[in-house]
Amino acid sequence: MLSLCCLPQSCEKRELLRRMWRLLKPWSSRILALRGGWAQGSAAGVFVLLLAGCGGGDPLASDAGSANADSSGPVLLLSQGGFTINYDCSLHSALRYDYTLGADTGNLTRPDSYMFDPTLPTGCGQQTSTSSYASAMPGWDRGHLVASNHMDNDANYLLRANYMSNIVPQASVLNRGIWLATENLAECYRDLAPVRVLGGVVYSSSANDYFLLSHGIRTPDFFWKLILTTEPGSANLKVIAWYIPNSNEVAGLDSYLISIAELERKLGVATVGIDAPVAVKTARLGVSWSLPAGCSLG
Question: Does 268 or 11 have the greater pLDDT score?
Answer without folding.
Answer: 268
